[in-house]
Amino acid sequence: MDFNNKIKRILISEQEIKQNIAKAGRYIDSLYDNNPILLIGILKGSFIFLADLARTVTVPCEIEFMSAESYYNNTESSGKINITLDLNQDISGYHVVIAEDIIDTGHTLKAIADILKARNPLSFTIITLLDKPERRTVDINADLSLFTVPNMFVVGYGLDYSGYYRNLPYIAELDCSNL
Ligand code: IMP
Ligand code: MG
């Protein structure tokens, strides 16, 4: 596979990502007004976003991770989600902020949100780096979405195709023509 040829074009530059993450940091700061938060990154896709977002917030902040896998019927998400990494603490005393890479159909985030809300956090906020609203089949939205992308497959800045491209510093459109 020729890795570089699979990148069609850069959709969102490093600079644009940085600017919007700084705004997300201000949003969290103003929402929580110095109350401590529990920032939860959904692995693996959000690892770079979470690392950058965490460095822009000034409220006291703990960091945890969760991971989920979805089952597929051929290429479409079946909607069944398996939590493969869970928190190991009680979150009932916490203001929870979820950092997600992308909301596509919404199945993954809906499942995670339902599980966490049932554990009665003090508050619950969802921040997503990317949103593909055209693809949504489940009723879930972020409180803050940094960028809206059209219905195309994107990679970089944590997002992968077949495990690759997570380390690109920008968000790019993948050339799906010969996959
Ligand atoms: P959903 O459950 O359909 O919302 O899918 C969410 C997950 O699918 C995301 O957390 C990503 O890991 C993955 N995903 C969806 N669209 C893309 C994309 O365009 N590029 C890379 N991963 C994607
Ligand atoms: Mg993901």
Tell me the span between the first and last alpha carbons.
Answer: 10 Å
| Residue runs with pLDDT of under 50 for 5 or more positions | none
How many whole angstroms does the radius of gyration measure?
Answer: 16 Å
The total count of strands amounts to: 9
How much of the sequence lies in strands comes to 35-45%
Structural class per helix/strand content?
Answer: alpha/beta
Q: How is the main sheet built?
A: 6 strands, mixed
Give a topology summary:
Layout (H helix, E strand, L loop, with lengths): L6 E6 L1 H19 L4 E7 L3 H8 L6 E13 L2 E10 L9 E9 L3 H11 L5 E9 L12 E5 L5 E2 L15 E4 L5
Parallel strand pairs: 2-3, 2-5, 5-6, 6-7
Antiparallel strand pairs: 1-9, 3-4, 8-9
Helix pairs in contact: 1-2
The structure holds inosinic acid (IMP) and magnesium ion.
Provide a compact summary of the structure.
It contains three helices and nine strands, in the order βαβαβββαββββ. It is an alpha/beta fold. It has a six-stranded mixed sheet with strand order 4-3-2-5-6-7, with helices on both faces. A three-stranded antiparallel sheet has the order 1-9-8, with helices on one face.
